[in-house]
Amino acid sequence: MKTLQVKGKVFSGSGEGAKFIQLPWVRTQIAEKLGFIPYPGTLNIETTEGSRELKKLLKKEKTIEISPIEGFCRGRCFKAILMNNLKCAVIVPEIPNYTENTIEVIARVNLREKFKLKDGDVIEVKIVI
Known about the structure:
Helix content: 10-25%
Low-confidence stretches: none
CATH architecture: Beta Barrel
Largest sheet: 6 strands, antiparallel, barrel
CATH class: Mainly Beta
CATH superfamily: Riboflavin kinase-like
Number of domains: 1
Mean pLDDT: 87
Structural class: alpha+beta
CATH topology: Elongation Factor Tu (Ef-tu), domain 3
Strand order of the largest sheet: 1-2-6-5-4-7
Oligomer: single chain
């Protein structure tokens, strides 16, 4: 298993990721394609280094696609490991003007609560490629 290590700072998002994750067709696809029912929210991480290179690399890698219904954007997912032991996934929404240095992490549990995370905390995610 080849992984790509990404470090970044936790930050509060706009809540759009949570709305997306709660859509029934999204939840169904995540369950089928990633093997878990996601907690209804995302953990936003601002990558600290090599963010442009990270996004370029991820665009070249095989992805797990969340296929949209009409009126929504496509999401590209990658299996990942957070804090060296929790299986999760990174979602990269394909929406115009989405920031280059942001990744969103989903898991079965509320990641902020589980790891007692607050804005500004630096964490590491290993993306499986």
